[in-house]
TrEMBL record:
InterPro entries from the UniProt entry: AAA+_ATPase, ABC_transporter-like_ATP-bd, ABC_transporter-like_CS, AztA-like, Metal_Ion_Import_ABC, P-loop_NTPase
Protein name, entry field: ABC transporter
Keyword Ion transport carried by entry: yes
One BP term from GO: zinc ion transport
Source lineage: Bacteria, Pseudomonadati, Pseudomonadota, Alphaproteobacteria, Hyphomicrobiales
Species this chain originates from: Pelagibacterium lentulum
CDD domains: ABC_Metallic_Cations
Family to which the UniProt record says this protein belongs: Belongs to the ABC transporter superfamily.
GO molecular function: ATP binding; ATP hydrolysis activity
Keyword annotations of the record: ATP-binding, Ion transport, Nucleotide-binding, Transport, Zinc, Zinc transport
Amino acid sequence: MTHPCITFSDLTLGYDSHPAVHHLDGVVETGTLLAVVGGNGSGKSTLMKAIVGMLRPMGGYCTVSPGTRIAYLPQQSELDRSFPAQVRELVALGLWPKRGLLGRHRPEDKELVGKALMAVGLTGFEKRPIDTLSGGQFQRALFARVLVQDADLILLDEPFNAIDTKTVTDLVTLIQRWHGEGRTVLVVVHDLDLVREIFPEALLLAQRPVVWGDAREALSAENLLRARQFQESWDEAAPWCEPQDDVERAARSADLPGSGRSDSVVGRTQRGVA
């Protein structure tokens, strides 16, 4: 028997009345390993922020199953590495849901942080200032912080950007371990070959859901072309949510898991999308 972890219902997201994700329906089942893919500006990071509760929907809703513990790793570009902190302090921040921001760490917490650093290959880096780490080392430390959170739902936004191949391999191993433990993991990924190799499911976005399902089928040449056409044909000057009949007819060809409906109607005028 499957259990929903995340439910999207006619979800529309955006900033300053400017939608970035339109009319997303579907269910992420508990234990799913899902890649979120799409071009720049397709709404991938926006969706992650909505799931974690950092962004309120413009329409519809996003619901996470009650009691779900969430760990969220944003893009490195959104993090301030100049903050004067040591690696062990960065990793220990993952304990705040259990201890509180001002809570005192217990003896077992030091052991937990040490095990997490060992798991990501950073044993001996405990006292290193974070601003002295390479990009790959810093990402390993961030994964160690996720490890100590012991979360049910893990959201990773572009965790493989600008890091070396060895680090990517090691972090992918951790993601597969989380999946094997029955955790729900959503990862924003640009490397489509990696998605085809590692991820069972993929959600392809182009400011709207293009297709959601088996990763290899979702990333077919045909679907990638459709995503590019949707992205390129977007009319930024058009008013929001004025669907046209021809757009509605064109938006019914890709099934979304658990939704009972196909591609959602693009809520703004499209040019030449068939």
